[in-house]
Amino acid sequence: MSFIEQANETIRAAGGRMTTQRQLIIELIEEVNDQLDAEGLFQLARERDDSINLTTIYRTLNTLESAGLIRQQYISPDHDRKYYTLTGRTYHFTCRKCKRVIPFKSDLIDQLKHHLETELHAMAINACVCVDGLCPDCQAEEQR
Q1: Which pLDDT band holds residue 24 (cuts at 50, 70, 90)?
Q2: How many CB atoms sit inside 10 A of residue 9's CB?
């Protein structure tokens, strides 16, 4: 089942109607290959439908996140802005020096969630992972 089909079912199961605005939000989330914050999603949506409001964006994001279809993540170590991405997409490493963002994939997060479920009998819906440090270029520069 595609992300759009799952999202449609999730909205309906949560008691919501599948409006054209919600459909637009869901399509934009799937289309954008990079991380997206609520305000960025709002701006993209407004380009296609100027009647959409920020409340609809946040409600849709919250519903999709609660269902585990999208996840939040922070790119900066200061956690100053929450970004959203499809659950199956990459995580990000941010270099503290040059601020370059490097995407990566890892099964360790799913292993951690499974561990929490088996050890604590808790259902981990989301794991916020913020990884920062020095990229290889900045490491090499510091060693000079």
Answers
A1: very high
A2: 14
**Beta-bridge mates of residue 74:** 82
Q: Total structural domains in the chain? A: 1
Residue 4 corresponds to which amino acid? Answer: I
| CATH number, residue 68 | 1.10.10.10
What three-state secondary structure class fits 17? coil
pTM: 0.69
What are 78-117's pLDDT values in tens digits? 677 788 888 776 778 889 999 888 888 888 888 898 899 9
CA 89, 95, 96, 97 torsion-angle sign = negative
The boundaries of the domain holding residue 112 are: 3-143
Burial of 126 (0-12, 13-18, 19+ CB in 10 A): middle
